[in-house]
Design goal:
It is a single chain. This protein is of the alpha+beta class. The protein contains 17 helices and 10 strands.
Length: 430
């Protein structure tokens, strides 16, 4: 297997490792046209003015014929709404390795400031895509070929996590086919004609204008317009705290946030800091529950790190080890794990024996199996009083949901439910 081929296959394997396996074909889920969905632009490539009144986010595949048709519609929209509309592109790979390769090439071109040039070139070219073709596009665009080839051949691909996050977001929203558009959070399914977009955009221009007149800043406009949008189906899941009991906060807290994490996942490390801040803000109203989900297929050092954390828990120092591991994600080998164990004051004989014998493997596997039963497909995934929040979200997202769930819990307490029974009542567990 060549390096070029292995890079593409590796990306596809990573997608599968986090459970992202969309199928080609028409959308099966029905998106309500009158409902707003929370679709952050995130790190996506953006085209159009930063002060645009309308943001169109597209989930797309470079080899999708309908996506190619949709690009012509988008050109019409640009002409009709000059200066009022901007576009964000998110990868949603459904047509195999060639699509993966095209997404990689666009990201590598983006590193040189040429994402949209590569995007347009791929969509105006053929659907039979290979590395030589993409190299040719890169040369035509005047890219630094040394940098481009190095990025494409790198293992892992430098922007693989960004691509996976886009896939995860699409899956969380219920995207099953391409193209899928969200206009200020309002869904438009498939390669609709310009008229379908015009109707939604006209309404959104008015809505955005009202927000600006009410005092919302241009910088905050898009986030304000989608802030109350649906993040997923909103189902309450029966999420327990697990047999390991890795909790922080009172057992009778009004809100319980259960989070499945991987100690080698950079998104989890960022999320851990956000949850620390949230804990400080909410005090005794919030309980954090950690559950193990080491993704060994993409994070080879994670399983041993989770063993170390669980042994620290057995010695009453889980959260100290938790903080050490997230602070030193680049050094999770056995030697460094022992350094952290000594630093937090563990019994080293017990610690070494636990890691040598993998005595906590079953406890970790139990959490992993619980995650699978709940449909968790990547890390971090949180459940706030049973409602799932996928991916590393900004604190505003967690804060808004925690506050909403706190109000629900307070209503239960006023109706006579003891605080200690609030969580199991809300999520339906014994």
């Amino acid at each position: 297997m060549t390096a070029r081929r292995s890079t593409t296959v590796a990306f596809a394997a990573w997608l599968c490792a986090v459970g992202i396996q969309p199928d080609a074909g028409a959308q099966e889920r029905v998106f309500r046209s009158d409902e707003t969905y929370y679709v952050p632009a995130g790190k996506s490539a953006i085209r159009g003015p930063s002060d645009a009144l309308v943001t169109i986010v597209e989930f797309s595949d470079f080899r999708c014929g309908a996506c190619r048709t949709a690009q012509r519609t988008m050109q019409q929209i640009v002409s009709l709404y000059a200066g009022e509309v901007r576009f964000a592109y998110k990868n949603f790979v459904i047509f195999g390795d060639q699509s993966v390769l095209a997404s990689m090439a666009a990201a590598a071109a983006g590193e040189q400031g040429q994402f949209w040039a590569m995007h347009d070139r791929i969509f105006t070219g053929g659907t039979d895509i290979d590395r030589d073709l993409l190299d040719g596009y890169a040369r035509d665009l005047g890219l630094d070929m040394g940098r481009f080839r190095a990025a494409m051949d790198a293992k892992p691909f430098p922007w693989v996590n960004d691509l996976i996050e886009e896939m995860k977001l699409g899956e969380t929203l219920g995207v099953q086919g391409t193209p899928m558009f969200f206009v200020n959070g309002k869904p438009i399914n498939g390669a609709a004609d310009a008229g379908a977009f015009i109707r939604v955009i006209d309404d959104e221009v008015k809505r955005a204008t009202r927000e600006l007149e009410a005092g919302v800043t241009q910088a905050d406009l898009y986030e304000r317009l989608i802030a109350g949008g649906r993040r997923e189906a909103g189902t309450t899941h029966p999420v327990g705290i697990g047999e390991n009991g890795l909790t922080r906060g009172p057992a009778d807290a009004l809100v319980t946030l259960v989070v499945f994490e991987d100690f080698q996942c950079s998104f989890c490390a960022g999320s851990a800091g956000v949850l620390d801040q949230l804990t400080q803000e909410m005090g005794d109203d919030l309980r954090i529950v950690f559950r193990h989900m080491p993704l060994a297929g993409i994070h080879p050092d994670a399983p041993l790190a989770h063993e170390a954390a669980q042994e620290a828990a057995a010695q009453g120092k889980f959260w100290a080890m938790h903080d050490e591991l997230f602070a030193h994600q680049d050094a999770l080998d056995r030697e460094h794990l022992e350094v952290y164990a000594k630093r937090i004051g563990l019994d080293m004989k017990r610690f070494r024996r636990a890691l040598d014998r993998e005595i906590h493997a079953a406890a970790i596997a139990a959490d992993y199996e619980a995650a699978a039963d709940l449909g968790v497909r990547g890390t971090p995934t949180a459940f706030i009083n049973g409602v799932k929040v996928s991916g590393a979200q900004p604190i505003e997202v967690y804060r808004a949901m925690v506050e909403a769930k706190k109000l629900e819990a307070e209503a239960l307490v006023r109706a006579g439910t003891p605080r200690a029974d609030v969580y199991k009542t809300l999520v339906g567990i014994d």
